[in-house]
Write a structure and sequence with these properties.
This protein is mainly beta. The chain is 10% helix and 38% strand. The strands form four sheets. A ten-stranded antiparallel β-sheet has the order 3-2-1-15-12-11-10-9-8-7.
Length: 297
């Protein structure tokens, strides 16, 4: 009897965990966390252009509502203000047809100078370390506590419909840094441009999200066209993004290419009693770095 019992216990212990259960558990852990409101932090933009590494640092704060406020000028630009060089000029010419017979003439004016790229490498970072790519929502829906109108009927069973947006499979257990993590592969069932997570690593003991890989990041090209690796950190018991790293070069339309690019978050803490950062004035979309509105999963 005893040998058979030992074999049964060993078989159960080695049973492969269910990928969907791991995924749902990780989402519940994220949803259960309580973040200060607002938080202050520093955002660091790091890019490599050829053999040259460049850095920008921004002071920012984020609110649970999703509002993000950033000092619109980096520490580096405050120390050395950006100087616009060259001359701006316009080219004006006329276009006419049948002018001798009373035809029309139009004058066209075009900018003849080359538009200068934004002094910020990836744009002003209107982003927060408390962003989770749809794995959690900002506000949990209040439970429906209203009494049913058919109070005289007995409840036989409760049916919950699950409308999945990802097919989730367990790749295995891997070491990530000093942690052991479940590696989940996610394949979107619909709208792959909206549901961007492709791989997810979850701590096997705490079910905290350790890192994830997404296909496309932020809202502007070329960031939306490449894969990114996102790592997380624990600050005062809460998970925050530590770094977002592009896994491919970023080729911009104004002939600028960054062979490497990353965004990091440090000095995360509850905002103190100092004067809050004023809202950043909204400019053209291509000079601000934003995360898209995350659709709940």
């Amino acid at each position: 009897m005893f040998p058979a019992l030992c074999i049964l216990l060993t078989s159960n212990a080695l049973a492969k965990p269910d990928a969907y259960q791991i995924f749902e558990h990780a989402k519940r852990v994220l949803q259960s966390q309580s973040y200060p409101d607002p938080i202050s932090y520093r955002t660091t933009i790091q890019v490599s252009e050829g053999n040259k590494d460049e850095f920008e640092h921004f002071l920012a704060e984020a609110f649970v509502s999703g509002d993000v406020r950033v000092e619109g000028v980096s520490d580096e630009e405050q120390a050395t203000p950006h100087q616009t060089r060259g001359m701006n000029f316009k080219l004006s010419f006329s276009i006419g047809w049948n002018t001798e017979a009373g035809g029309q003439t139009e004058t066209v004016t075009k900018d003849a100078h080359r538009t200068e790229a934004s002094p910020d490498y990836l744009g002003v970072p209107l982003i927060s370390p408390a962003y989770f790519f749809g794995l959690t929502t900002r506000h949990a829906a209040a439970p429906n506590t209203a009494s049913p109108t058919t109070s005289g009927l007995h409840t036989i069973a409760t049916v919950t419909a699950i409308d999945r947006v990802y097919m989730v499979s367990l790749v295995g257990t891997e070491e990530v840094g000093a942690l052991y993590a479940y590696h989940l592969h996610l394949k979107p069932i619909t709208h792959p441009d909206w549901y961007r997570i492709r791989d997810l690593w979850v701590d096997v003991y705490t079910y905290q999200v350790v890192q994830l890989q997404i296909q496309g990041n932020f809202t502007n090209a070329p960031m939306t066209n490449v894969a990114w690796l996102v790592t997380f950190q624990n600050v005062d018991g809460n998970a925050y993004i530590q770094r977002e790293t592009a896994l491919e070069p970023l080729v911009f339309h104004h002939d600028r290419t960054f062979t490497a690019a990353s965004i990091g978050f440090t000095d995360i803490h509850a905002s103190d009693t100092c004067a809050p950062i004023l809202p950043t004035l909204d400019g053209p979309s291509d000079i601000n770095l934003r995360e898209p509105e995350a659709l709940p999963i």
